[in-house]
Amino acid sequence: MMRSRPITKRKVVVSASVLLIFMVSIFLIVYNISPETKKHILSFPERITTEYLSKRLSTKPTRISTSPTRISTNPSKISANPKKMSANPKKMSANPKKLSERELLLFVGIHSAPSRLDRRNAIRETWMKECQSNPNAICRFFTDGQDPNGKVLQGEKRIKLENESRVYGDLFLTEVPGGVNFAVKYLWMLQWAKERYDFQYFLRLDDDYFICFRKLMLELEFFRPKKKFQWGWLHCELPAATWLDEAFYLVSKDIVESYLSRRDTLLCHVWESQAIGYWTKNISDLTTFADNRRLLHKQTGFSSEQEVLKRTEICHSVLAIHKSYPEKMRLFWSIYEKEDKPVAYQEVKISYGCRYPLAMDYRTWGKKSIWFSEPKLCKDNPVWDRNGEYKGRQGH
């Protein structure tokens, strides 16, 4: 006769893997805030607290080196064969489709002349730190890979650029004619970024612009339209030529797609902002934010070091400052790092503020003006040779 075993209490053992999955699930639920939760947080849509902002915008230290001494100019250390350093979107990656799966809020393309290492380093040491530590943004420099006649750069100039690209990983050489052929380069930058990232906004920037990057990201995430939107500093002097300046020019993803889908019929111009003035004519219901009060194109109140040193803040008052050459760029950053961060941000409403509607007619300037040039089809890679490399305003 078999004896029945006494009934004993069994201990329930929760495996470490099950516990880990549970904890990760809880984290994902908390981090990926639902639309209803966001609506609750933004019950007053004009303001958002820094407590919530700190959870959305990373403040981890930058991973980018800012030491220019690491750049080698020894030809023996790097091939001078330009074919080995291609900026062609199809050659840069063996799997561009996989790269394009990365979603971003913002891609920043900074146009910089080949010789402007000083400006690029000033940006790397200042506001670009916030871009590099933010997983929702990418900032990249784009410089000439060809001379103004379409010939590939050779020799020491190319070697230095290739070394800089390898050291920092944020510099790319365009494969279109260099110099003042800005509109063609802009289309190339858009295509390059579009093939690699799924961004909601694209910001084209000059290399002498100081950006309140954290503030910009906040406004894009919560306050700005996601479709048919362009943002910049508006030229509002001429009824036949009213346009956004290219030095800071931000557009939504659908505008980028519109430009690229029409590139076989688009007209290009020496100055890309004039070309864009033509491109936007065919886009209906376009929202234009002429943010002239906060995008300081002419540096009112920031023009001298004495004026700047009297300030206790930078980014409370403005969003970006043009003509910020290296020394001033670092000065602005030093003040920004010390300024009191606001408890809450106030939304700045979109405005236009110009009596003239958007318009563009290249004939406005007359043939003697440096701004005059007859548009040409972009697909033909038009060339305007105006004395080689364009370094921008010289500054200091």
TrEMBL record:
<comment type="similarity">
    <text>Belongs to the glycosyltransferase 31 family.</text>
</comment>
<feature type="compositionally biased region" description="Low complexity">
    <location>
        <begin position="61"/>
        <end position="76"/>
    </location>
</feature>
<dbReference type="GO" id="GO:0006493">
    <property type="term" value="P:protein O-linked glycosylation"/>
</dbReference>
<keyword id="KW-0812">Transmembrane</keyword>
<dbReference type="InterPro" id="IPR002659">
    <property type="entry name" value="Glyco_trans_31"/>
</dbReference>
<protein>
    <recommendedName>
        <fullName>Hexosyltransferase</fullName>
        <ecNumber>2.4.1.-</ecNumber>
    </recommendedName>
</protein>
<keyword id="KW-1133">Transmembrane helix</keyword>
<dbReference type="GO" id="GO:0000139">
    <property type="term" value="C:Golgi membrane"/>
</dbReference>
<keyword id="KW-0735">Signal-anchor</keyword>
<keyword id="KW-0808">Transferase</keyword>
<keyword id="KW-0328">Glycosyltransferase</keyword>
<dbReference type="Pfam" id="PF01762">
    <property type="entry name" value="Galactosyl_T"/>
</dbReference>
<keyword id="KW-0333">Golgi apparatus</keyword>
<keyword id="KW-0472">Membrane</keyword>
<dbReference type="GO" id="GO:0006024">
    <property type="term" value="P:glycosaminoglycan biosynthetic process"/>
</dbReference>
<feature type="region of interest" description="Disordered">
    <location>
        <begin position="59"/>
        <end position="94"/>
    </location>
</feature>
<feature type="transmembrane region" description="Helical">
    <location>
        <begin position="12"/>
        <end position="33"/>
    </location>
</feature>
<dbReference type="GO" id="GO:0047220">
    <property type="term" value="F:galactosylxylosylprotein 3-beta-galactosyltransferase activity"/>
</dbReference>
